[in-house]
Amino acid sequence: MNYPGLATQSPRPVLTYQAKTVQIVVVGAGGTGSWLVGHLARLVWDFNRTWAQVHGEEPRHASLLIVDHDAVEEGNIRARQNFCPAEIGYPKAQLLVNRLAFAFGLSEHEISAHVGQFSSSLLARRWNELTILIGCVDNAKARQEMADCLAKQNPYGTRENEYPSLLWWIDSGNSLHAGQVLCGNVATADELCGALAGPLCLRLPSPSLVHPELLVPLPDEEMSASARLSCKDLVLAGEPAMQQSRTINNHMAGLVYGYVEMLMYGGLTTFATYTDNSTFVTRSLETTPEGLSLALGLPVPFFTTPGTLVESREGSDDKDSDEEDEA
């Protein structure tokens, strides 16, 4: 859906590297993450068992890694996370893996858990593997770690390469009733120069490029863990005005899943989706020059003309050099 008054061209279809191996990593198994991983486990099961039958090609393989350092508490269940009373005290990530591996018959090579904090070392750095990193966290520190992964991405991904990055970052965040999903694979604006000059879109801005404030800690994040209000606390808050929507996390999980499925199978034509459960309004920015211009504040020709930014900077550098010579 377009924003009112924003005239756009037809969106460019997003094309990812069609790797034989796809690694999906979910960071955060709380409000949104605990509901999302069930969809992704079904996706992995289907992808690994039907690709060769449908497409008549050699099999492709997908895997799912769930990362979370927390254990289930009673408050998580009351906050409508995807856990039950019998699971209190056990690690969230491992519980979900055990549950889904049993339900879908997934092997340890298809689904696994890391009970601990996320770090870039958890990502496989194989040159021919597509990685989809999904953030379902509520703090800037974790997002900073994911942003660093994109900034230090696979050295095989360059602007000259057909596929500039083998790592895609999808970030999900929400408040009481509203939220956003952002999807991108490049960490700097320079890399988007001429990104939509052709019929396909291979490069999209990192979530932290579209919303830099995601990497800035909120005042309450500086507090101790015991004093800070988490998404769980918002659900359990006594004041009705402070209580989180009963359906926002399920809604966010569905939106994130849609992005993952379209990245893997094709069909994605948006890079930012904003939703409000109190009004049932969901809007997206499409992969058009106008959409990227609105998101990043750069002129439309920058995204359609290769070399625009590089040339302008080189001209600026030459001018500065001439002024220095005259001085």
TrEMBL record:
Disordered as annotated region, ranges: 306-327
MF (Gene Ontology): ubiquitin-like modifier activating enzyme activity
Residues in THIF-type NAD/FAD binding fold domain copies: 18-154
Lineage: superkingdom: Bacteria
Protein name, as recorded: THIF-type NAD/FAD binding fold domain-containing protein
Record Pfam families: ThiF
